[in-house]
Amino acid sequence: MLIHEWQIGPEMNQALQRQQPADFRLWRSLLSAAVEEQAAFVLQQPEKSSEKPSLRQSFGLGKPRVFALQSGDIARVAACNHALQQSFIACRLQQALSPLPLVLQDDAKKLDARVADNLDLHSRRRRRQQKEEPVEVDATALYELLHHIKPQAAA
Q1: Of 21, 49, 86, 149, which shows the fewest CB atoms inside 10 Å?
Q2: What pLDDT score was predicted for residue 94?
Q3: Residue 49: predicted pLDDT
Q4: Which residues of 60-87 are buried (b: 16+ CB within 10 A; e: fewer)?
Q5: What pLDDT is stored for residue 62 in this prediction?
Q6: DSSP assigned state of 8
């Protein structure tokens, strides 16, 4: 990580002038550890006049399945278990036609405890949506501390 902008020289300004947002973000990321909180540098994109249909629409597919357990899934799991006892191919066909749930509850904000324990302090506060409280510093306390340490250093 760099401390001052002058350490990267003119590269950051040149990336901005050449309209190279990826290079600009790279140089900017070297200046701060919390890049995810900085505003993104975005060039004006030309507007697309015609909207293309998505692949899902063009193939006539239904809505994608949610990951969580829904009503009727228990019966499908039992049917898949019965089909698995009959033959593996029948079970695979049944899963392809009606996929089974991947999780019991679909929570997008859930984070594994091991991952949450390894987050830095800034990320943990942001997850809890806590704002950092400013610390009031007494300027005279440093003088008193230095005055208190000085006699101990002489001994």
Answers
A1: 49
A2: 78
A3: 62
A4: eeeeeeeeebeeebeebeeebeebeeee
A5: 77
A6: G
Q: What are the C-alpha distances in Å from 126 to residues 39, 67, 93, 112, 120?
A: 16, 26, 44, 16, 10
pLDDT at 84 (0 to 100): 81
For residues 23 and 74, membership in a common domain is answered with no
Tell whether 82 and 122 lie within a shared domain. Answer: yes
pLDDT digits (tens, 9 = 90+) for 6-47: 777 788 788 888 888 888 878 777 776 665 555 554 455 667
Do 104 and 68 contact (CB within 8 A), yes or no? Answer: yes
Domain range for 16 is 5-37
Residue 60 CA to residue 133 CA, distance in Å, equals 53
Is residue 119 located within the same domain as residue 72? yes
Number of domains within the chain: 2
DSSP-assigned states of every residue in 16-82: HHTT-HHHHHHHHHTT-S-GGGSPP--PPPPPPSSPPPPHHHHTT--PPPPSS--TTHHHHHHHHHH
Which residues in the chain show pLDDT less than 70? Answer: 1-5, 32-46, 48-50, 130-135, 139, 150-155
Q: Say if 47 falls within a structural domain.
A: no
Domain assignment present for residue 48? The answer is no
